[in-house]
Amino acid sequence: MPDERKVPEPLRWTPPPEPVTMQQGYADLPDARLWHWDTGGTGEAIVFIHPAASGDAQIWRYQIPVFARAGFRVIAYARRGYHKSDRVEAANPGCAAEDLAHLIDMLGLGRAHLVSSGGGGSVAADHALSYPEQVLSLTVSSNYAGVRKGYIRDAARRARPAQWNELPRWFREFSTSSVVANPQGIAEWIAVQDEATKAKGVEQHMKNVIDEAKLAEMKPPTLLLTGDADSSTPPSLMRMLAKHIPDVELKIVPEAGHSPYWETPDIFNRSVLDFVKRYNAT
Predict the structure, then answer these.
(1) What's the pLDDT at 89?
(2) Contact partners, residue 28, CB within 8 Å, separation at least 6
């Protein structure tokens, strides 16, 4: 008698969807120029805020076409120090949350959904706390929302050994399952982040010193998302975070590491789309 047990398919490279047309160019802010991409249209705006590892719209190649075809006006931009945007200068590093606020104003978006990953999550959370009137919803993937002090910060430090920065970036970003099963996807991610990352210089300022008490002031509905194999922001850390945000949902993505937007894009896109569609402007 044949064995009818079904064995799940392994992870594998997913070809990115057909790209959509995007206008691109400089956004002239009060003290810097940021390179940005914009699909245009009359749909609700959704702004993608890249991780620290890359600052190119290619990092969102699995998201931009999907969200644009779902009816959203999609904006991606490179923070200071990335791609063609201005460098971060020590004498005037600026504030990344303020830069985002200026960009939203300059583009006439009014209010937008913010979707972030990695280091972009700190920017998104700082912006949402500072400019809640601009935010329809907040998605923070693989980041502890810019927390800088308190027990969550202490827990996050325990996740990274002293040798952390000596490890290859791809090893820190992806689950072992992804590394084993998806070498093509890993290689393409490395090519994208190498191309987009410049010498960033000093970090930009944050408007808030975020701790557990500050998280309790978060007004926009918030989706926290991480991979179950994320060694930087593991599920336990994101559960700590979720305890302090008033209107929050938490999604744990199976077999993903620190970059579920790239490792398991179908799950990432479906989770974020289901969330943002519940918080439109009307």
Answers:
(1) 85
(2) 106
- pLDDT > 70 fraction of the chain, expressed in percent and rounded: 95
Q: Are 70 and 84 in contact (CB under 8 A)?
A: no
Task: State yes or no: pLDDT of 199 exceeds 60.
Answer: no
Q: Does the structure show a pLDDT above 80 at 7?
A: no
Q: State the Cα torsion 262-265-271-273 to the nearest 10°.
A: 100
- Report how many domains make up the chain: 1
**89-116 burial by CB neighbour count: b if 16+ within 10 A, else e?**
eeeebbbbbbbbbbbbeebebebbbbbb
Q: What is the CATH number of the domain that holds 269?
A: 3.40.50.1820
Domain boundaries, position 43: 23-276
Sequence-distant (6+) residues with CB within 8 A of 176 are 229, 257
Regarding pTM above 0.90, the answer is: yes
- Residue 194 C-alpha from the chain's centroid: 18
8 Å CB contact between 215 and 151: no
What integer pLDDT is reported at residue 2 of this predicted model?
58
